[in-house]
Amino acid sequence: MLAISEQAQRVISEIVEESELGPGGGLRISGTNGGNGEAALDFELAEAPLDGDEVVSEGSARVFLDEMAAEILADQVLDVEAHGDHFHFSLDGQG
């Protein structure tokens, strides 16, 4: 199952709070076929998970994963890296 670093938990919680999505809101990650045989991941804010989404809650952060994203990210850690006034999510394998 996807793990969420403490820093990513904080950033996700802040983004969701600022977006005023409400208490059920979170970051939704969906997998798509990149066309070259590799999967691509899309990140977006969502008011609630869609039917069939896996919900990962750590701290006050909620992440919704569609079936493909859940499979791709099963052994990953979601982290975030600050770059000046913005940030980038990153993924690392679990120990």
The gist of it:
By secondary structure, the protein is an alpha/beta fold. It has helices spanning 6-19, 67-72, and strands at residues 3-4, 26-33, 39-46, 54-58, 61-65, 76-83, 86-93.
Describe the structure.
The protein is of the alpha/beta class. It has one domain: Hypothetical Protein Aq_1857, Chain: A. 21% of the residues lie in helices and 46% in strands. It contains two helices and seven strands, in the order βαββββαββ. The strands form two sheets. It has a four-stranded mixed sheet. It has a three-stranded mixed sheet with strand order 1-6-7. A hairpin with a 2-residue loop joins β6 and β7. The model has no long low-confidence stretch (mean pLDDT 91).
Summarize the topology.
Blueprint: E1 3-4, H1 6-19, E2 26-33, E3 39-46, E4 54-58, E5 61-65, H2 67-72, E6 76-83, E7 86-93
Parallel strand pairs: 1-6, 2-5
Antiparallel strand pairs: 2-3, 4-5, 6-7
Question: Features of this protein?
Answer:
2 helices; single chain; 95 residues; 7 strands; three-stranded mixed sheet; globular; alpha/beta; Hypothetical Protein Aq_1857, Chain: A
